[in-house]
Write a structure and sequence with these properties.
about 260 residues, alpha+beta, Arc Repressor Mutant, subunit A, Beta-Lactamase, 2 domains, six-stranded antiparallel sheet, 9 helices, globular
Length: about 260
């Protein structure tokens, strides 16, 4: 989740709904802020401490937050329970997992499954392998669309307004801190649509290469992207491609016939 910032003056906007304040509190947590004191929760959400305390108590009562042994607040299991009902999250993961495991066993490399959420990709599942290099993204974490294998696949098949927004935005590639031109990105997206596969590489913190393919639903719309990620030079992308394509197609068939497939947007 993105870090929350304190509004100027430290007070919630006039007339701000309670639900919005609660969402701001939940948005205060992140990979680097998994547990927060009341003072930190107040500061990061931009809410006065009495308001933060009142809302925190309500969220604890519902199960969205829990109190750790040291009194700090952490995300509660109730949110995991609710999130498990998301068809594009755990529902998609449950359908795809047997195929992901087959691909993981066949390649011995990292296998990723991601969906698009607005202008970013969200990692739904990751099967990791010893010695396959470092993966920068965690399950549930967000990934850029313009510089990752799964991101390029999702962006190539995204609606035109989403593509335009990304092309007009910051195209810096991290962690290299280099900038991709809009012209080059357009060419990459056209190649992904033409070839049905995206190949993306990064140099830092170690050379890695990703081979990614789209996963489609019963309406032939792209609902997810599958990739194998390995150390550059470990496996030839051309050698991985047939397996990634075959598994992506198998997942697409499974997704199209799975119960609740009509719930996928």
């Amino acid at each position: 989740m993105a870090d929350a910032t304190r509004p100027r003056g430290g007070r919630p906007a006039h007339g701000e709904p309670v639900l919005d304040r609660a969402f701001r509190m939940l948005g205060s947590f992140g990979p680097a802020h998994r547990s927060l004191s009341l003072t930190s929760l107040s500061a990061r959400s931009g809410l006065p401490k009495p308001t933060a305390l009142r809302l925190a108590r309500k969220l604890v009562e519902w199960g969205a937050l829990e109190r750790a042994g040291d009194g700090r607040y952490v995300i509660g299991l109730r949110l995991l329970e609710v999130a498990s009902l998301a068809p594009r999250g755990h529902g998609l993961r449950a359908t795809a997992l047997p195929y992901l495991e087959d691909l993981h066993q066949a390649t011995g490399q990292h296998v990723l499954l991601a969906v698009r959420d607005g202008y970013q990709a969200v990692l739904v599942e990751r099967l990791s392998a010893h010695g396959a290099g470092r993966v920068l993204y965690r399950v549930g974490g967000r990934m850029p669309l313009h510089s990752t294998g799964v991101g390029l696949v999702l962006l190539a098949h995204a609606p035109a307004p989403v593509q335009a927004g990304i092309l007009a935005g910051d195209l810096t590639v991290e962690p290299e801190h280099t900038r991709l031109s809009a012209r080059d990105l357009r060419a990459q997206l056209a190649a992904v649509r033409r070839d049905g596969v995206a190949v993306a590489s990064r140099r830092h913190p170690e050379p890695m290469t990703s081979v990614a393919c789209p996963v489609s639903d019963q309406r032939h719309g792209t609902v997810a992207a599958l990739s194998v990620v390995t150390r550059s030079g470990r496996l030839d992308p051309a050698a991985i491609r047939p397996a990634v394509v075959a598994v992506a197609r198998a997942i697409s068939r499974a997704v199209s016939t799975a119960p609740g497939a009509q719930d996928l947007p």
